[in-house]
Write a structure and sequence with these properties.
The chain is α/β, with parallel strands linked by helices. It has 2 domains: 6-117 and 189-308, P-loop containing nucleotide triphosphate hydrolases (Rossmann fold, 3-Layer(aba) Sandwich); 125-187, Histone, subunit A, CATH 1.10.20. It is 55% helix and 9% strand. It contains 14 helices and 6 strands. It has helices at 21-31, 57-62, 79-95, 107-115, 125-138, 140-150, 152-157, 163-176, 180-187, 205-221, 224-233, 248-256, 261-285, 297-308; strands spanning 9-14, 34-38, 65-66, 99-103, 195-201, 289-292. The chain has a 6-stranded parallel sheet, with helices on both faces.
């Protein structure tokens, strides 16, 4: 068996939204001379602070943070871009002799970073052009419905507004006769670029859901609605992938007059809870996750110390 260099080691702090990952990770990063690399698919966007529960300036000052506020909300960004950029940052952190903490709840980003991305399958420019023309003339929803029939797993994963990835999945199927999901399963994310110690934060489900509900209330008191108004006024349309994120799409509907605020908040809390449930399912399916409660920083420190030795 090939032995991994200690220089390839990093700590992953994962778990559902509202579980307290930020504070937990900062305490450990300060203890182990660490720097934090965010793994959140919405905190990457500038101007989207309150609704993403982005680390505050004080928190970012307590431990160096990376992969936060790196692109504008109208820029395309995906797991491949994240993995490539974050990997370069991680190698530089390691070269400085510091410990890397990858912190976030976007499981696919973390997996792409650690293992690299799968072979996307063969391509055909003519097929891609035809699908792109169809998306422009008939709408992406038509392609999404087709993808649901031939590769429901991919359709579930890909955001309905992510035209590029929908077209790519259909292209692979048309060229090969096999769903894109098959290519992903064959790859199996087998080629590790880094060796992780995975620590997940866990709460009893009723407690976690109560924390999520209270977090939404706190976001509103901090001015979340004004943040969304400013984004819309700045030209960031509600149809953007970033603006379809949790909370932003709900409040954009209120601002457009398509929903009442009270109803939108009920739906937002419900959708946050459902998202947390999906995150728990994702991380629960991963192997070698050490599940701890957020008050077990001493136990986490012992695990990290042994891992880094």
């Amino acid at each position: 068996m090939v032995q991994r260099s200690p220089k390839s080691k990093l700590i992953v702090i994962c778990g559902p939204t509202g579980s307290g990952k930020t504070g937990f990770a900062i305490n450990l990063a300060r203890q182990f001379n660490g720097e934090i690399v965010g793994a959140d698919s919405v905190q990457i966007y500038r101007h989207m602070d309150i609704g993403t529960a982005k680390p505050t300036p004080a928190e970012q000052a307590a431990a160096p943070h990376h992969m936060i506020d790196i692109v504008d909300p109208d820029r395309a960004f995906d797991a491949a871009a994240y993995a490539n950029m974050a990997a370069g940052i991680i190698r530089r952190i390691i070269a400085r002799g510091r410990t890397v903490f990858v912190v976030g709840g976007t499981g696919f980003y973390i997996k792409a970073l650690i293992h690299g991305l799968f072979d996307q399958g063969p391509s055909d420019p003519a097929v891609r052009r035809r699908l792109k023309q169809q998306a422009e003339s008939e709408g992406t929803a038509v392609l999404t419905r087709r993808l649901q029939k031939i590769d429901s797993a991919a359709a579930e994963r890909i955001h309905p507004n992510d035209t590029y990835r929908i077209i790519r999945a259909l292209e692979v199927f048309e060229v090969t006769g096999e769903p894109l999901t098959i290519f992903q399963q064959r790859h199996g994310f087998r080629e590790k670029r880094f060796t992780p110690l995975n620590i997940g934060l866990s709460w009893p489900r009723p407690v976690l859901y109560d924390r999520i509900n209270r977090r939404v209330d706190m976001m509103m008191s901090q001015g979340f609605e004004d943040e969304v108004r400013q984004l819309l006024a700045g030209g960031y349309g509600s149809d953007l992938k970033s603006m379809q994120s949790l909370g932003y799409r709900h409040l954009a509907a209120v601002i457009r007059g398509d929903a009442e605020l009270a109803d939108a908040l009920v739906t937002l809390k419900r959708d946050h809870r459902r998202y947390a449930k999906r995150q728990l399912t994702w991380f629960g399916a991963q192997t070698s996750v050490h599940w701890l409660s957020p008050d077990q920083t001493a136990m986490a420190g012992e695990l990290i110390g042994a891992f880094l030795t």
